[in-house]
Amino acid sequence: MCGLPGSGKTTKAKQLERERSALRLTPDEWIRPLYGASPTPEVLDAARGPVERLMWLVAARALGLHVNVILDFGFWSQGEREDFRRRAHELGAGSEVCFLNVPQQELLRRLTLRNAALPADAFQISDAKLHEWSRVFEPPTEAELAPRRA
Questions:
Q1: Angle between the N-to-C axes of helices 78-90 and 41-64, in degrees from 0 to 180, rounded to the nearest 10
Q2: Mean pLDDT value of segment 92-103
Q3: Does residue 19 lie in a domain region?
Q4: In sequence order, what are the beta bridge partners of 74?
Q5: Where do runs of H (alpha helix) occur along 65-103?
């Protein structure tokens, strides 16, 4: 899953999980039980890397068992996307980038609504953070969106 917060990644990942009988791995769903309901922004930022590394170990085992896996990580850079696609290929698995391209104004609108009634598996995201993250996000190219077979 590729996209900024509020783009609908987790909603789409849940749909794909059902349609493809896949194991869905969403970091926010693991961070809350491991780090508490209200981690500080610093703890939240520090938690993401270790949680995603652990999730990859689970994903790699599942792929080795020929189980479909959905990594709901956001994948903000081309380098990160290519790294995980290479890892999947090395395990004999194909890969696909599902990009949710949502205009920034719509992301801001959705995040305002989400922050007002925060789901149990989500964290507050400020407008300022979204603007900051939008500047570093690298949308995938058309070539990246083509599925890759094992």
A1: 30
A2: 97
A3: yes
A4: 2
A5: 78-90
3-state DSSP assignment of residue 123: coil
Inside any domain, residue 1: no
Mean pLDDT of all residues belonging to the chain: 95
pLDDT beyond 90 at 108? yes
Residue 11: count other Cβ atoms within 10 Å of its Cβ.
Answer: 12
Q: How far apart are CA 24 and CA 11, in angstroms?
A: 11
- Calculate mean pLDDT across residues 26-35: 94
Q: How many domains in the chain?
A: 1
Is residue 95 domain-resident?
yes
d(CA 94, CA 87): 10
In a domain, 2, yes or no: no
Which contacts qualify for 130-136: CB closer than 8 Å, 24 or more apart?
A: 130/4, 130/5, 130/6, 130/104, 131/104, 133/4, 133/5, 133/76, 134/4, 134/104, 134/107, 136/76, 136/77
Residue range of the domain that includes 88: 9-145
The domain spanning residue 135 has which CATH number?
A: 3.40.50.300
| CA distances, 57 to each of 4, 19, 25 (Å) | 24, 23, 11
pTM over 0.90? The answer is yes
